[in-house]
Design goal:
about 50 residues, mainly alpha, two-stranded antiparallel ribbon, 2 helices, 2 strands, elongated
């Protein structure tokens, strides 16, 4: 996960996600298809509320 200077989340570290998934025995080809589509929703959920 990358964090912006003001504390907002900018993006996921896909290598870390893939490494974790591989260690757990997940289907990496499925993850490669799905992760880019769901990344914006994950980032929205982790973003701090606007002040």
């Amino acid at each position: 996960m990358r964090v912006a200077p003001m504390g907002g989340v900018v993006g996921l570290d896909f290598n870390a996600v893939y490494a974790h998934a591989a260690a757990r025995g997940a289907d990496l080809s499925l993850l490669a298809d799905v992760l880019p589509a769901v990344e914006p929703f994950i980032l929205f959920a982790w973003s701090p509320p606007p002040s």
